Amino acid sequence: MSEKSPQFRPSIETQKSNETTERPEKTGQGGETHQQSSDGARLTTAQGVPVSDNQNTLKAGPRGPALLEDFHFREKMFHFDHERIPERVVHARGYGARGYFETTDAIPELTSAHLLQEKGRKVPAFVRFSTVAGNKGSMDLARDARGFAVKLYTEEGNWDIVGNNIPVFFIQDAMKFPDLVHSVKEAPDRAFPQAQSAHDNFWDFISLMPEAMHMVMWTMSDRGIPRSFRFMEGFGVHTFRFVNAEGESHFVKFHWKPKQGLQSVLWDEAVKINGADPDFHRRDLWGAIQAGDFPEWELGVQVFDDAFADTFDFDVLDATKLIPEEDVPVRIIGRLVLDSVVDNFFAETEQVAFCTQNIVPGVDFTNDPLLQGRNFSYLDTQIKRLGGPNFTHIPVNAPKCPFAHFQQDGHMAMYNPAGRANYEPNSWKDGGPRADAEGGFTTYPEAIEGEKRKVRAELFADHYSQARQFYQSQTEVEQGHIADALIFELSKCEVLDIRKRVVAHLPNIDTDLAQTVSDGLGFDEMPEPDAPRRDMVEGLKPSDALSILKNGPDSFKGRKLGILVTDGIDGGLLASLQQAVKDVGGMVEIIAPTIGGIKTSDGKSVSADQKIDGGPSVLYDAVAVMAPADGVKKLATMHPAKGFAADAFAHAKFIALTGEAEKLFHAAGVDDFDDGVFRLEGKDDCADFIQACGKMRFWQRG
Ligand code: HDE
Known about the structure:
GO terms for molecular function: catalase activity; heme binding; metal ion binding. There is one protein chain. The protein is α+β, with helices and mostly antiparallel strands and 702 residues long. The protein folds into three domains: 1-11 and 18-178 and 225-403, Catalase core domain (Catalase HpII,  Chain A, domain 1); 461-549, Hemocyanin, N-terminal domain; 557-701, Rossmann fold, CATH 3.40.50. Helix content is 25%, strand content 16%. The chain has 18 helices and 20 strands. Strands 3, 4, 5, 6, 7, 8, 9, 10, 11 and 12 form a ten-stranded antiparallel beta sheet that branches. It has a six-stranded parallel beta sheet with strand order 17-14-13-18-19-20, sandwiched between helices. A two-stranded antiparallel ribbon has the order 1-2. CIS-heme D hydroxychlorin gamma-spirolactone 17R, 18S binds at residues 88-91, 94, 128, 130, 147, 149, 162-164, 169, 174, 177, 237, 319, 352, 354, 370, 373-374, 377-378, 381-382.
């Protein structure tokens, strides 16, 4: 830090998490109990005054009225009353983690960004993943886009890439954002439905905004229900600029590619996961990082110049369009690793304030009208949400490089300029910071000419060509999921006309898809197709990069096997199966009829992670059922056990069986086993099974 840089330190030491509990001690005052923090620190008020009693308000006599004089009570209660801050208007439900970014391929020829000048440069990072529509307490597996917001604490200031897990957006102009968000969130009169797009208001809006059709194909695809944050791609969405030291500019699009591969769940699973574990995605990220299995993404860039932009079929400033990787390859330049959970959710994940305006020298904006609007919106939102302009003083938002300016005062000011000078220019000897004409951020001097009008560029009017390209890039299984999702969502619309208006857009994307959805909704005939506003681009080649199944994981690493067990199983075989999962870096949970666990045939105890109704098979990537004859008999009388088996099979999961376990499946109505069902007899079978599980699902099951 330079001498002039502010010395900002949080004044309260963050308490380290303490996973163990101690037996509560009696206070001896009315029988109440309290827990002593293990480090034995003395409880104080926020002013630091030692507290003698944290159980009782000050009273006039044991049965007398409480006294206003009790400053400790007042402070504690007032603080509690103010614990909530406004939740984010969108992306309210989110989960963050810390990590680092490391440059793996320097690109000084493209950008002067300090971080990207040299291979091996490393900076701290904070990432917050989120759903968009739901409120803060909504469930994780809503069908929705996911936010993928990255804050890089670089040596030249904070660089925020505030992206999504989908490379395009619903709308083209920021003017429409409040309408889009109002339409998807709960209806204002009844305040439902929450965290879902399957309702009239959303589809009404979409049917009248064909520019949304491309992104709708993405949200209706499996991208809308990711298996976890760890298995998602991230995209900067807009076209940005890189500017090098010579002042030359290139266009750039940002991609985060998960090393874990891409993976999603099925809709029926998503619905059930939301009930079984509404925090499924949170728990997954927390669990993986705590287990030392740090998720990692590569940062890729698609770089192109004006010549490409001028000849591309679509406008590169249009956020409803992407540039296929086959046209402009993604060059990997760095890696992002999340290796640390937060100490405190509120302090970091809730208070982190991303702003698209946060860029660093060497990076610049383009005139994408959505991006321009976002640059305005985010700062405004943070000031409101965090209560004032000093949100940059909160540790998670503060730069980790030297900073110095003359902004002062306001709510919660932690840093004000030292000394007499708080303006510039000034003639004081110690006059504070000065602008740096050479090294400071300069905007790329793009020449601009045009009439001031409320308009959109002509090329923006092609709403279907890339939606078709996306659909055609999917495997048959994925195409089926898109049709199912559209049928599901539109079946939730009460107004027939809205259903018809949406389906009228589909023939422009794919006639088979349109027919399937029309049939699925029980229409007697296809609605008259909506006429495209502009001639579509024919012959766009399918792009493999757009499919999840073509980019899935190639091993069971980072994924979870659920083993349903009963008393009397072969403990050696269980150990072999657990070892086989461990060998490839996967995780195991044991599910048993009671949380107390089971005893193996040789009398050894095995503890359980879940009781059967708390561990349905939807929570696992693959399952095994190990049970001798009497165990199966018992399981077959338990509805959750039958559901475990029936769902695992219906969700095309790889399944392993030992003993008489197949009888549980028969009891659940599954009689015909296929090659996705394995019998485990010995160690080698376990390894073979886990190897097969490397593929995402046994899709042949249909
Ligand atoms: Fe956002 N968006 N957005 N958005 N957005 C917010 O900022 C907004 C858009 C995205 O984890 C808000 O802090 C406008 C596109 C993420 O904290 C708000 C427009 C993309 C997050 C806001 C868009 C995003 C937000 C709400 C259209 C993908 C969560 C609270 C012009 C590239 C960040 C907040 C986090 C959050 C405005 C469109 C991603 C209101 C006006 C496109 C990941 O400022």
